């Protein structure tokens, strides 16, 4: 539980930068350029607040951002924004998740083989906004209606947002194959899809659902603006109507628990370890 590997690496990098900002690289104080974070590091308010506590300001626009150190968030950033930041002589610290970068790489490879790339994901999610900006002819879809609106191509490449459920991706692939046909490498026709869901997301959802089906109450810890956490809660709720979705301990009614109850706990990829550990300690004391 707690951070996935990608978020952990990004968070550790940002906290190190914050310490350098406060004390200088020598640890004895000193001046370095201002460090800002372009967008929230992850979709979790507690993590964003922790980053701001070490002096790294979150910005929502790149307007008038010049000569600073700019951290690119875990979800990645749009190509145009990156180019503008470089042009304005900013130093970039790329904290984009390695798996998000891999999806971009796969999408660009598919683009060389197909006239269009279909991305299964949430249109306004920053990961998708960033990915779309690197492609020449992308299409975003999440429903049957989206597929019906797609143009007719001889072939399409298909990738997904890293945090969508495997079931959603599989159902969309089936619909795309109904429209374009299964991928035929010899003929160069059909829908060629690649596995791009984060391994941590897949395994965490599977193990959490298994636990949820065996306990009286399942607690999912995460922010409601986190796609990863929300989908995890929805999956657990499908097998356990007593599933709870909380961001932190204060949202949990401890009086509703007793030693005779079996309780499971899981968390989204952007949920910090310290929040989960606090909830576990509180439940153990009931």
How would you describe the overall organization of this protein?
The strands form three sheets. Strands 2-1-3-4 form a four-stranded parallel β-sheet, sandwiched between helices. The chain has 286 residues and is an alpha/beta fold. The protein has three domains: 5-96, Rossmann fold (3-Layer(aba) Sandwich), CATH 3.40.50.11270; 99-197, 4-hydroxy-3-methylbut-2-enyl diphosphate reductase, catalytic domain (Cobalt-precorrin-4 Transmethylase, domain 1), CATH 3.40.1010.20; 200-284, 4-hydroxy-3-methylbut-2-enyl diphosphate reductase, catalytic domain (Cobalt-precorrin-4 Transmethylase, domain 1, 3-Layer(aba) Sandwich). The chain has helices at residues 5-23, 45-53, 79-87, 98-113, 126-132, 144-148, 166-180, 199-212, 227-239, 273-284; strands at residues 35-38, 57-59, 69-72, 91-94, 117-120, 138-141, 155-160, 190-193, 217-221, 244-246, 263-267. It is 42% helix and 16% strand.
Which secondary structure elements does this structure contain, and how are they paired or packed?
Elements: H1 5-23, E1 35-38, H2 45-53, E2 57-59, E3 69-72, H3 79-87, E4 91-94, H4 98-113, E5 117-120, H5 126-132, E6 138-141, H6 144-148, E7 155-160, H7 166-180, E8 190-193, H8 199-212, E9 217-221, H9 227-239, E10 244-246, E11 263-267, H10 273-284
Parallel strand pairs: 1-2, 1-3, 3-4, 5-6, 5-7, 7-8, 9-10, 9-11
Helix pairs in contact: 8-9
